[in-house]
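Field: COMPLEX_INPUT
Field: COMPONENT_COUNT = two
Field: RESIDUE_TOTAL = 1012
Field: MODE = joint
Values follow.
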Amino acid sequence: MTTTAPTPAHVRLANEIAAQFRHRDPATAAEEIAAHIRAFWDPRMRARLIEDAEAGHPGVDPLIRAVAALLPPPPPPSPLPRN
Amino acid sequence: MSLIKEPDFGTPARPGEATVAVEIDGTEVLVPEGTSVMRAAAEAGIDIPKLCATDSLEPFGSCRLCLVDIDGRKGTPASCTTPVAPGMKVRTQTEKLAKLRRGVMELYISDHPLDCLTCPANGDCELQDMAGVVGLREVRYGFDGENHLTEPTDSSNPYFDFDASKCISCSRCVRACGEVQGTFALTIEGRGFASKVAAGAGGSFMESDCVSCGACVQACPTSTLQEKSVVELGMPTRSVITTCAYCGVGCSFKAELRGDEVVRMVPYKDGGANEGHSCVKGRFAFGYASHPDRKLKPMLRERITDPWREVEWEEAIGYTARRLLEIQAAHGTGAIGGITSSRCTNEEVYAVQKMVRAAFGNNNVDTCARVCHSPTGYGLKQTYGTSAGTQDFKSVDQADVILLIGANPTDAHPVFGSRMKRRLRAGARLIVADPRRIDLVRSPHVEAAHHLQLAPGTNVALVNALAHVVVTEGLVDREFVNDRCEDFETWERFIAQPQHSPEAVADITGVPAEELRAAARLYATAPNAAIYYGLGVTEHSQGSTMVMGMANLAMATGNIGRQGVGVNPLRGQNNVQGSCDMGSFPHELPGYRHVSDDAVRSVFETLWGRTILAEPGLRIPNMFDSALDGSFRALFVHGEDIAQSDPNTRHVTAALSSLDLLVVQDLFLNETSKFAHVFLPGTSFLEKDGTFTNAERRINRVRPVMAPRTGKHEWEIVCELAQAMGYPMKWDDAAQIMDEIALTTPTFAGVSFARLDRVGSVQWPCNDAAPEGTPIMHVDGFVRGKGRFVETVYVPTEERSTRRFPLILTTGRILSQYNVGAQTRRTGNVAWHPEDVLELHPHDAEVRGIRDGDTVVLASRVGETSLRARIDDRMPVGVVYTTFHHPATGANVVTTENSDWATNCPEYKVTAVQVTLKQPVPAAPGPVR
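Field: COMPLEX_OUTPUT
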């Protein structure tokens, strides 16, 4: 008997977003989802999504794989905010 | 400041221009048509004696004290029930009138206790005042006749007594209960001398339908209905006008005090949101502020298993700052964050988000609106351009049709609920979309035209079907759409597709197609149709989609931009609107401006002297997930009990347990503080100095009635923490914080404490373009320019009932309790709701062998809890309901990780559950009430 790892929260959320845009043509949907993720997601979540999409995580929706390709890599960690 | 006594004009103002000229005691007065002689006189500075009249109630004409003499009229008509007429000449003081009035007063006093000196209302009694005004010197009838002096006192209500011996049967309480509150719990029973006030069917107030709003107490001209606190403490001597700290209605109150002790809270007639009305929470449930559970000293502990240790502020702040810096040094700038509170002032919220962005150096700031109205923010911004309700509360007075979706205002927003009921009694039609048969579906003198009793989780299918009818039956306001909107044609094609028809979605929603079509026609064809909604819209996996769906519907029918229409979120907590306005979301700076906007960031960077990240930070659920994966290590929680209020308690507590540092700032130790290392005591609303912004964008002053019992304002503590972390952050007072908000945030540019003190309140935007504020938004154009139609595809939630979990749980609130109950559980309000109960339909109960009052197990795939059952056919078959006010029940033990796709707002309203009998009620089961 095999067990599958639970879908990570960021993958699950991305897939749910994909479901909302699936009625659009795929290219437009991917662009709109990528814009949404850029606007609302913390970079570390975005980085994990890109990583999982590129690694072929089986839970990632095909539309989200296209989205991941449109997402910019996250910025480097910011320095400590000291004067 | 001395005690504030607002003038009482005797009868309500009538709308319209002042066009009727009358002469009263030789003085000419110009008043609107329909104004009573009594009010016209009062506006001319002439007080006519009165007892049964007060300007919050329609005239009644029973006390016969306000008689006047009018040229050309027979007899001596009552001035309260006599409207002015052009050229009318009135005399209010003649020998004949004086004699008549003295005679009336003699009769009243002959049946009234002569205990003025020991009466709680001594000095605040209209009967006493009127006896003086009419010059009463004797009572010719004596006091030995038949009387009511031995009538008993009803002390059943925790907050006020009803002393029937002092009642003068003026009916003000009865009329207030009906006209102002809309509950109709009181009546006058009997006739003539035997007539007396009765609650319900003649039992006690607590046994009646009384909701303890206080309107009757407010209206009573004697000490018949009297606050117990006045009986106990005596009459207050000074007033401070401030704002209620409960729901998003944001009622204005006079805090009435003796010294520093609050005697009572009296609703303020000039309050823009409430206009003199109140509910049981704001009016009476303020005792938590002085509850012995309050923590007034900071506390520390190294491990959450250690006992708390009281420390001085310096040590608490120094320790917290050191630990935050250590964690950042070890795990990165983004390893820490903060949560702001919708129970705190705008100024406190602004301070916390500034601390996170400038001192923490990241955007990991979120607010409890994440778990309630974040979809409102997203949906209305996408469609209209800003995150705010479109109307003021008064607007409902002009609505012809009210579409109420997923909201229960008589429980959750009771003062607005009363206002809505007034409008419905005046003839407006009501459509309710709710799985439960809420009170507004049918209550005294109110009946919904349509109750769309949809299945939980099918809101978007429902709103799409409503819009489908509008589009396919030719009900679109083409002129509005053409002039004011964009993307309509694409949306029109989408919504006209047959899968959105009422017939096609009937099996999904459970709403009969003809009923839905009739509701859609009613909404679309009304001269003014308004949408009001609550968390039954937002707390779904498609909460944001539903908000956009409602925005589409309002635009398609032209119901935006004037009185009586609009899309109106009923916000949960007192400052949800304000906390969102103040930049609490991780992707937005104050004023709903995205962190990626270079120009906006530069405004703050220049002022704050720190670089602000251009990328969004973590939302609350992301903080929990990141805590569990180890990338997020410290959290500052300001005035929230996330361990009780947030969904999937096991997940939340696991996340909190994994933090290296949890700082909680609150009034009381709570469920969250069980996992905290630092506890910083907070201030109650009676100690705060600042502003709250209510659901109609109204910015109201919160004025301190006493100094902070902790020794510091909360924003001061935040400043000291930021300073201890090396960031210079300082204001001299809360007014300076608002000045900084105004400086940086265009929609608040005209707001200052000085202006608020001058005008009372303003609704944002308040700036050079709208110096007096903006009661109605999008009048000439939308904030984003054109209103944008968005396609709203219905995507069913992944939460489905199964054989193992065949019922759907939906959660909500009840009138007497507030949020996690931290405040209301520490007041007399527990008399109404001492525990959370599970409501279920008789059928669902019977097949499980459950009787009313039995203890049941409520289980979902993530957890289970126990509570008592209440069997009620207002629930549909297959749906159960509970509240989350009591930690002992912990309703969120069973709610899941499902959330809104756009905002992560939890799906509190749909959880698949099973209910099983745990412990039968011992004997003689009675209803749980």
